[in-house]
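Box 3.1 A note on notation
Throughout this textbook, protein chains are presented in two layers. The first layer is the amino acid sequence; the second is a token string describing backbone geometry. Keep the layers aligned when reading.
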Amino acid sequence: MKRMHKRTAEELERLQTRVDIINKMVQIVALVLAGVWAIHTWYEKDFAARYTGLQPSIESYARWSPAFNGCFGAFRVTLENIGVKNKDALSVSYTVTPVKVSALSGGQVSKVDPPTEPVGDPATGDIKTLVGTYAPKEKRFQDIPVVFAPKSSQLQVLSVSVQDERTELMTTNALMLEDCKKE
């Protein structure tokens, strides 16, 4: 009878050793999972927020238009979410200001009067088609038409302001020279 009791004690000791090993393995797995969760949470809240956002860009073109007896042009405003999280554009507005240009004899632009001294009244408006939620890598665009008078020496300065959910204001400027000729 003593021998049976001794064997049971040895078996209990081996069983306890196995339980201790399993317990330590479970603790290690739990610590690793907690670390992964902490890194993931930090990335989602802090790191990704620094490298995400709405990026405005502008392209422009101009062509002679007999219908307008002048140059018809357009600014293409593109707004893209360059990040990894959804971003909201709460408002997108623009201002187009005609600016006088001084040229050298060769036709190259030598001086642009500052936009604070416009030649004409600035045109302003909202670009409602660019307002909304942008998924990661999503891109939208809108064209803003511009008409130049014949034989003018003007630049058109476009300023675009985008307000996102963090109330940060971003502005991009572009210049378009009347480079089209009457056909």
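The beta strands are 54-65, 70-81, 87-103, 109-112, 123-126, 132-134, 139-148, 154-164, 169-177. Residues 66 and 182 are 8 Å apart (CA to CA).
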